[in-house]
Amino acid sequence: MILELNEQQVMIRNMVREFAAREIAPGAAERDRKEEYPHEILKKMAELGILGAIIPAEYGGPGLDHVTYATIIEEISRACASTGVVTSVHNSLTAWPIIQYGTEEQKAKYLPILARGEKIGAFGGTEPDAGSDLGAMKSTAELKGDHYILNGTKTFITSGPKAGIIIAFAVTDREKGPKGISAFIIESDFKGYKVGSIFEKIGINASMTSELIFEDMEVPKENLLGKEGEGFKIALSTLDGGRIGIAAQAVGIAQAALEESVAYSKQRHQFGKPISSFQAIQWMIADMATRIEAARFLVMNAAYMKDQGKRFSKEAAMAKLYSAQTAVDATDKAIQIFGGYGYTREYPVERLYRDARITGIYEGTSEVMKMVISGSLLR
What we know:
The structure is a single chain. This protein is an alpha+beta fold. The chain folds into 3 domains: 7-120, Orthogonal Bundle (Butyryl-Coa Dehydrogenase, subunit A, domain 1), CATH 1.10.540.10; 122-232, Butyryl-CoA Dehydrogenase, subunit A, domain 2, CATH 2.40.110; 239-378, Butyryl-CoA Dehydrogenase, subunit A, domain 3 (Up-down Bundle), CATH 1.20.140. Helix content is 51%, strand content 16%. A hairpin with a 2-residue loop joins β9 and β10 (273-274). The longest helix is centred in the middle third of the chain and has 37 residues, at 231-267. It is globular, with a radius of gyration of 21 Å.
């Protein structure tokens, strides 16, 4: 892998960094407190091509490579993790499976809408009794005439209350187990679709997370994504790519915690000198910086392998596992450096700490990442 970004990648990263500092970061704490979805910010991001980052040019996006895309997610998450995960799900979990598995008609219909940000994307995989074990899902889809009739409940859906296009999964043949699961492109105005409970969370509060309920929901048969029975394969391959986005989100959170800690340690004085002069603080900052750099390289390596068309399941799992651990560790150290102030909402590190925790849970828990990694080595 080439460890340096090229000129175009640096230009895009810097553009997104400046945009995030100017438009996203200033209101992040208030949106978190109010649990306010970033509508206006997403509109501006769509204008810059960020919402359609990986969508090919023929469908209205800039068609960026995944290394560039990972840097974008990192920079947005550095300013606001909620906006970062909305962007990641919109691209990685909604647009990508349509790009990869959709028909030409599906691509022409849905990708331009996603690229323009006219509708926000979501991913409907998890159910109350099927989280890590997607094969245990109970949602069903039965073909009747020109429509599939979907019934079931999805849960923990990022952007659920605001999403307009959802990649959802349901069982079309129970006897085939995981091979009887199929994927569908759902629109929120389909008959029988409704938003269920909206969850109150400890972090990423501006992203909004909810249940989605399908009650005899009518889905045109042309909205089947891939073939019947390919849903499990589609879900797993989509989540592999999505894990790169979440790993990049974790790196962005950790980077923000490091920057806040460095700045605070220079201006906070105790015993007549800045606390940055104390070895205990220096060692914490050194540990944070080293782990963040290592995590970033793991993310870039996984993204590079995806761009090269190579298998990257193990590398994506490694990146997500290590980056999530790094985000939790870095934000914990940041609060320690800030002391009592770090435990208040006067400074952003408490929000970073709350946001970091989810990165080891969604799109595959850290335990599942270890299963993926060990499985690839022991098979």
